[in-house]
Amino acid sequence: MHMQRLAVSVFDPDLTSLPAVAHRLDFVEHEAEVPLHVHRKGQLILALHGAVTCTADNEIWIVPPNCGVWIPGGVPHSARATANARLNYLFVEPGAANLPEDCCTLSVSPMIREMVDRLARERADYLADSHAARLARVVLDELAEMPRERFNLPISCNPKIRAIADALTSEPSDRSTLCDWATRVAMSERTLARLLIRETGLTFGRWRQQLHLIVALRELASGATVQNVAAELGYDSVNAFITMFKKALGSTPAQYFAQRRATLLTVPKRALKE
Questions:
Q1: Where is the HTH araC/xylS-type domain (predicted)?
Q2: Domain span at residue 238?
Q3: In this predicted structure, what is the pLDDT of residue 129?
Q4: Mean pLDDT by 10-residue block, N- to C-terminus, for the chain (274 residues)?
Q5: Last residue of a domain, one of 110, 128, 149
Q6: End residue of a domain, out of 82, 117, 149
Q7: What per-residue confidence (pLDDT) applies to 80?
Q8: Does 52 lie in the same domain as 15?
Q9: Is the pTM of this model over 0.70?
Q10: Does one domain contain both 159 and 200?
């Protein structure tokens, strides 16, 4: 039986002090679970196909199409990828670019995606005056201009909120009320409601909806049908799920992914030519 390797065992970004290096990872060849780890370099995670969810800095992050999750250096993080996931990682030396000091989701232009993909084909020990070095510099300059998106779920280090998050992540169709959860974690409903707002900034209803959105994006990106995702999340009908999705992201699931596929097909190829 073929044993798949852990993703963190195949490439160590901290072996180089270059400003930026990139690496492509195909999860057909690796374990879906990436255990908790940390490195000196910051990391941008881009999904070429499929989807990945990351846990870092007391939040769960989804890597949707046309976005990337940015994890600063020194922040412990773990991940779980769908079996069909293909990712590009961009590792950035601390201080090499004007990037956020906290974890976030960054909108990523098609040009940046293509340049990171090109950099992933270069050696990790490229020369300082090489084409790869110039490419890395442009990538970092462009990336610093990208706006933030909101594809994360705050989960807090509070053990009771973490327990609820773990349970709902494992069984997102669970429709237990706030009162039900308060009973399970031995708190009053009012106290739990206040705790959630204080720790996450969201009411229970908004918090669970954000979790559903994260799960939906991950599953739809991996090829699941809208019908199956709606059922997995416990919605009474497909229309109810589509309404939630459209209210959150401004378009139906079909429109959302069609728009992103169209964007990926309009890459400015000349930007990669010298």
A1: 162-259
A2: 155-259
A3: 92
A4: 55 93 83 87 90 86 82 93 86 95 90 94 92 96 88 87 88 93 96 95 93 87 90 94 92 86 51 37
A5: 149
A6: 149
A7: 83
A8: yes
A9: yes
A10: yes
Tell the residue number behind the tokens 């490229």, with chain if given.
126
> 141 lies in a domain?
yes
Give the C-alpha separation, 115 to 110, whole Å: 9
Question: According to the model, what pLDDT value does residue 1 have?
Answer: 38
- CATH number of domain containing 139: 2.60.120.280
Give the full edge-to-edge strand order of the sheet including 104-107: 20-26, 86-92, 42-49, 67-71, 104-107, 148-149
- What is the structure's pLDDT at 256? 86
What pLDDT is attached to residue 71?
Answer: 96
Q: Is residue 249 part of a domain?
A: yes
| Residue 31 forms part of a structural domain | yes
- Residues 91, 118 within the same domain: yes
Q: Are 6 and 35 in contact (CB under 8 A)?
A: yes
**Comparing C-alpha atoms, which of 271, 270, 253 is closest to residue 65?**
253
How far is residue 272's CA from residue 118's CA, in Å, rounded to a whole number? 8
Here the tokens at position 238 are: 């497909």
Position 269 in a domain: no
Domain count, the chain: 2
One domain, residues 161 and 120: no
Q: Is 132 found in the same domain as 77?
A: yes
